Amino acid sequence: MDDEMSEYYFTASMDSGKTLCSLLKAIQFQEFAVFCALAEGLKLTVEEGKCVQASAYVPADNFTEYHVRSDVDVMFKINISVLAECLNIFGSGEESSLKMYYRCEGSPLILVLQPQSVHNVMTDCEISTQTADSVLELRDEDTSEVAKLVLKAPAFLGLLADLERSCDIMELKLSPEHPNISIITYGMQDRSCIDMPKSSEMVQSFNCTHAVTLKYQLHHIRLIMKALAVSTKVVVRCSSNGLLLLQLKLEKEDQRQMFSEFYIVPLLDD
Amino acid sequence: MKCHVPGPNVKVLGRTVHALARFGDELYVESLADCVLLRTLNAAESAYAVVKFSKNFFSYFNYNYYSTEDNEGLKCKISMKSALHTFKSPTHMDKQVENLEIKLDPESCKLIFQLRCKHGIVKTHFVSILDCKAMQAVYTKDLVPNRITSPHKILSEALSNFQSSDDQVTVEVSSQNMLLRNYIDTLADLSKVIRTQVTLKPAEFDGYTIGADTMITFTLKEFKALLAFAEALSLPIQIHFETTGRPVVFIVHNGSTFEAHFVLATSKADNASQITTQNTTHNERTKRKDVSSSNHSARKKPNLNTDISKCLEEDSHLFNFIHIPEEHPVAVSTDGNVGNNNPQIENNMDCDVILPSPTAKALIRRVFKRCFEQTIDLTNIQGTVLAEDSDPDT
């Protein structure tokens, strides 16, 4: 078995491709994603204008089988909507088991899907791949984390959905004093402010040692809304250089983690 | 001004703002000693709405919280967009919002809406004040011959038969029945338009008093908005009107805490093109009649003739254009002419009066009108020649 597998760079199988598909849709704001199979798990990354980096991460323990050749980098570019469509090839109501094969650099990604309710039916999909560009390394190991909070995703989504669409800039204020979390948007003439104390029901944990004020493009923040809709909770981390990291835990029946993460670059003061 | 709106009433306020947003782009807020008035006027000045919230609507009410020396309340104009943003989703509002505080910040000239929501979240909207004027319209809702009180469902169900492209509706009333039909542009290709007509019997309504048979035409967009408002709050609608050219007033109130008046300008319906509709698409709605007559006794509103407290003084001439069509000799002639829909345009250009919503002019027919006449009255022609032919021999 092992000998046969080793001719492939990467193979994996899974009982249901459904959750993977919804995770892909959560980050589907660009056409192409960088598909990266690491020993720890599978990661698909999309970027928007070097300002936002979104990844869907599936740890290896979510797969029933998972092999990556340790001597090569398994990394290629793939059309994310085609991949999501293939995973959903029997329709959204159908659970289907999934096998993935990737032979070597330049070869297509092969998906074998088998619906669970119908026997002796299977689909073979070949998705052509491209050589990957480099992925931005936004995380800076030297900077410290200034705030970390855990919020309930549905309530946070409701809050973001209520923000004025015409606003460009969102200001996030975190402070150890009341009100602990403030979100301020500036419109044409008006200003709106949402205050949330850490005692609020939607805040599950709050860690902030000193007050910070950061500005982001509201458009960038909005990109996480699709992912929020399928998540249960969101971990927000703020580093001292203003980089915002949001980790969204996917809603799942079993205990194994699957999540999407978003790095958002702040706006600088002028 | 400073006032607190309790949770359930925030939804009512939200619905009001959404209804007013269909009328105009600016919202006038005025606080008096015992009430708050919200008003709006559309750009063409053919539709106006005022909603009065009495003191009881609020859990706390102080009309001049900051200004102590004079007894003036707040008077201001804000953008409707800002107001809409404050009340983004009125359907969920009563579940999320516990309390709303509205106050004026005298230093920064902002009107502050502070929503206290569930989960301890506080949303504050600082809305810029565009102007410090109040605006009023003058119209009569009392002393009009025609008054109809309708359950909110009847009219919206009747309107659901109309095409989405229809923009005006003609209402023809007599003591026997009420006809609703879509207004058809005289320039439109009659072979392509769909004509819709709905007949409603007086028994469908809670109150039906027609003093003078008449026919009025007004815009559907605002009519639908006010029907949606009445429907959201499950309140009946009172319609007060006189005749064409005079505004029609729709009143929605709950008897105690708020009262809304929606005023629409009416224009003269075009007889020639409309009359033929009567037999072609007669859309008798007998099916629904049984349903409504059975339940209409249950929610009968007795207050048709009671005067509602006057909340508008008469100090402006808005909506006072009101020239009854008979005063204009141009307008009426017997041969089914079509070009006289807008008879008031000439003498209304000068002051602050407003025109009824415009109707189409069949220009070609007006210019070549004489070709369609069976006989030519020479005296009439000679009477109208203002410039002689320069060369009479040719």
What does this protein structure show overall?
The complex is a heterodimer of chains A (270) and B (394). Chain A has 270 residues and is mainly beta. Chain A has two domains: 2-131, Proliferating Cell Nuclear Antigen (Box); 145-264, Proliferating Cell Nuclear Antigen (Box). Helix content of chain A is 15%, strand content 44%. Chain A is built from six helices and 19 strands. Chain A has helices spanning 2-5, 18-26, 80-87, 153-161, 218-222, 225-229; strands at residues 10-14, 32-37, 41-48, 52-59, 65-68, 74-79, 96-102, 109-115, 123-127, 130-131, 145-152, 169-174, 181-186, 191-196, 203-208, 212-217, 231-239, 244-250, 259-264. In chain A, the strands form three sheets. A ten-stranded antiparallel β-sheet of chain A has the order 10-6-2-3-4-19-18-17-11-15. In chain A, strand 12 and strand 13 (181-186) form a beta hairpin. In chain A, helix 2 (18-26) runs antiparallel to helix 3. Chain A starts with a helix and ends in a 6-residue tail after the last strand. The mean pLDDT of chain A is 88. With 394 residues, chain B is an alpha+beta fold. Chain B folds into three domains: 2-128, Proliferating Cell Nuclear Antigen (Box); 146-231 and 263-296, Proliferating Cell Nuclear Antigen, CATH 3.70.10; 325-383, no CATH class. Chain B has helices spanning 7-21, 80-86, 90-96, 152-159, 220-232, 271-274, 277-280, 286-296, 363-367, 369-372, 378-384, and strands at residues 2-6, 26-31, 35-41, 47-54, 60-62, 75-79, 97-105, 110-117, 122-128, 146-150, 168-173, 178-182, 197-200, 207-210, 214-219, 237-241, 248-253, 258-264, 283-284. In chain B, strands 6-2-3-4-18-17-16-10-14 form a nine-stranded antiparallel β-sheet. Chain B has a five-stranded antiparallel β-sheet with strand order 5-1-7-8-9. Chain B has a five-stranded mixed β-sheet with strand order 15-11-12-13-19. In chain B, a hairpin with a 4-residue loop joins strand 8 and strand 9. The radius of gyration of chain B is 24 Å and the shape is globular. The model of chain B is unreliable at 272-352 (pLDDT under 50). The A-B interface holds A 155, 159, 162, 164, 179, 187, 189-197, 199-202 and B 79, 82, 85, 88-89, 118-128. Strand 14 (191-196) of chain A pairs antiparallel with strand 9 of chain B, so a sheet runs across the interface.
